Amino acid sequence: MNQPSKQASVIVIFGATGDLAKRKLFPSLYNLYCKGVLAEDFAVVGVARRQLSNEEFRSNVHDAVIHTACMDKDDKHEEFSSHFFYQPFDVTKKESYQDLKGLTESLDEQFDIPHNRIFYMAMAPEFFGTIALNLDSEGLLEGDGFNRLVIEKPFGHDFQSAQKLNDEIRQVFSEEEIYRIDHYLGKEMVQNIEAIRFANSLFEPLWNNRYISNIQITSSETVGVETRGGYYEKSGALRDMVQNHMLQMVSLLAMEPPGSLTTEEIRSEKVKVLRALRAVNKDEVNDYFVRGQYKQGEANGETLPGYREENNVDEESNTETFVAAKLMIDNFRWAGVPFYIRTGKRMPTKSTNILIEFKDMPMNLYKNESGKLGPNILEVHIQPEEGITLHLNVKDTGDMRKTTPIELNFNNKQKNNMNSPEAYERLLHDVMKGDATNFARWDEVALSWQFIDPISVAWANEKEQDFPNYSAGSMGPDAADKLLEKDNLHWWSSPKE
Ligand code: NAD
Predict the structure, then answer these.
(1) What are the chain's domains?
(2) 19 belongs to an annotated ligand binding site
(3) 326-382 pLDDT, tens digit each
(4) Buried b (16+ CB within 10 A) or exposed e, 106-119
(5) Among the atoms of ligand 1, which is closest to the Cα of residue 183?
(6) Residue 124, annotated as binding a ligand
(7) How many helices (H) and strands (E) would you count in the chain?
């Protein structure tokens, strides 16, 4: 038998028959297995309500990974699935936990695992507190190995509910044992923001209000709510995207350089940004935030339904499917620099990108074709492309007083000749290594909710009379453009425009 690795663990997935497990967790674990990260000393226990045998569960796992290929190696779908076990589970019944304890301990023996446990919560958040308390009371957390709790979003639906959830899980798990997933933090180019900033003397001296005019972050989806109308009605784009992913990207762009690249140093710097975010009170919401909801529209010759026509959506729904905002960070580095964010469903492209627009030259000696000098812009492509583009001006070949814009491009996928690992693959590996850097600490979650809550309360109290206000397949409502026009700026969908 192989020497057991220190990190070898039994991974318990709560909600193992669900969509997240099938689409993200099993393929990511398979990739880690193919790369040798998981070796042979691991076991996965799937628990969910359904009555399944081990064989039926393995067959589901097998089907979920069958189209995922092992690079450079023979595929190992059968061997991989043989590490999976299933237990029908009722989260409220003590016996379920006692059975789970027996099963995980027998897997320790079978796979030579030193009583390490990863508990992955891939089910509705209302069960997390109950599960945590029962894991403790039924003795599943005893033993010499580590216990880690992985929690999916949404982490509450406002500050109060997030705090309640946190209090419940903290009765059992310490902060260091809790891994709150924000899958954007697992993306290659989100992780690259720190390297671009702190490993390039070209950028860091300019990264402040003396040289940067504004920063724009756009995260657009082409899909509507699909089958998740019920969930989305209660969430909306503000809770689903802004409270977590968008604010995490803002923190990484705005944080001070950490003293070192340790988990706590990095997270502490990110938290300071959230503390410096200018609070928006209910009377100011319209100055800083724009909400949108899609109506019927067209894309690629296809008619797309409006949000209110989707399944499980109220036909008078007040839920926003689009948000644009102007965020101000009131500290020395960023005073006066707006961070504009926008995110929505049913937009023309599925993409996330960040644009850092530098200030104009103090005096324009040169002009381009349109009679102006275009700004320098650094673009960070988060997805689907991964890379950076630097927009510069160079002399026009014909006329020595004219400039022409050029782009310096770096494409990460081309460089590595392969796709970067999926965010979930990276994050699962981090949990196994015990590295919580790319997970949200409680104070980050708390501050983000405290920032968001006045806006969601104002929107809930005041129905948007203009809804629906943007066509499916468009870039959102006109008000999102006006938000920047007030500041004499505009969204750069592509700086070439
Ligand atoms: P899902 O509805 O597809 O699956 C839920 C799972 O929980 C199923 O396995 C079900 O059997 C199990 N379950 C529900 N009630 C149970 C009970 N009382 N006892 C035992 N098992 C029970 O949900 P999903 O899409 O897989 O999402 C799971 C969690 O992950 C949710 O919190 C969701 O918000 C979050 N999430 C999902 C995605 C995604 O891509 N699906 C992305 C981000 C976050």
Answers:
(1) 9-152 (3.40.50.720), 185-486 (3.30.360.10)
(2) yes
(3) 999 999 999 999 999 999 999 999 999 999 999 998 887 887 777 788 899 999 999
(4) ebbeebebbbbbbb
(5) 43
(6) no
(7) 16, 18
